[in-house]
Design a protein that fits this description.
220 residues; mainly beta; Elongation Factor Tu (Ef-tu), domain 3; 2 domains; seven-stranded antiparallel sheet; six-stranded antiparallel barrel; 4 helices; 13 strands; globular
Length: 220
């Protein structure tokens, strides 16, 4: 499990198609000493398995294989060499949850519309990220709720139809891949898993209605 607090960024070195899967290789000098073969690592919000760890290479690097499902559901196979990627290792049991519960299971991709500074030309400023969500994900997104964008735990500022706005603090802008993105970029999205479980409790979802009988039966 992850929390969406990005530990560092890495650089994509190469994407190598193979017969069984597509392999990506990422330079990560600061995390490589903590990686072992088979460990989970979130790359732009996608939970992958670390392979071929090379701490003595220049630069230090690791690889991971992309399954067909990962290629179809995420943006990873569309990255280009030198792309900056967000990296996070799993959160140890008992550690504080600084962000929110993030599984690394991407639900779909969104389109970045804009990333604008709140105070242009200021030495340090907040930013406003606008993105267009797929329609099928909007039911899981609410104002002030949690959403994971490119692996980053963020808070929804507003949602209008399928246009979502998120506030980005200066630290997040400087410490993640957001600073490298431009309008039109595809973004990996993971909605709050708790919202999906809540929906699942309705059987079927469209059949649930709040009635007087329901309130009485549940102690209201």
């Amino acid at each position: 499990m992850f929390t969406g607090l990005i530990e560092t960024t890495g650089t994509l070195l190469v994407i190598t198609p193979t017969e069984g899967a597509t392999r990506i290789t990422i330079a990560s000098p600061t995390l490589i000493s903590r990686l072992n073969t088979g460990d989970s690592i979130a790359v732009n919000g996608v939970c992958l398995t670390a392979l071929s760890i090379e701490p003595n290479a220049l630069p230090p690097r690791f690889s991971a294989d992309l399954a067909a499902e990962t290629i179809a559901r995420t943006t990873l196979s569309h990255l280009r060499p030198d792309s900056v990627v967000n990296l996070e290792l799993p959160t140890p049991a008992g550690s504080p949850l600084g962000g929110h519960v993030v599984q690394g299971h991407v639900d779909g991709t969104a389109t970045m519309l804009a990333l604008d500074p709140i105070t242009p030309n200021a030495p340090e400023t907040d930013w406003r990220l606008r993105l267009q969500l797929p329609k099928f994900l909007t039911r899981y997104v609410v104002p002030q709720g949690s959403i994971t964008i490119e692996g980053i735990s963020l808070t929804v500022a507003s949602i209008n139809d399928n246009i979502v706005e998120v506030a980005i603090i200066p630290h997040t802008y400087a410490a993640t891949s957001l600073r490298t993105l431009t309008p039109g970029a595809s973004l990996n999205i993971e909605v709050d898993v708790l919202s999906k479980y809540a929906e699942r409790q309705k059987t079927p979802p469209e059949a649930f209605h709040l009635t007087e009988e329901y309130l009485i039966a549940n102690g209201y």
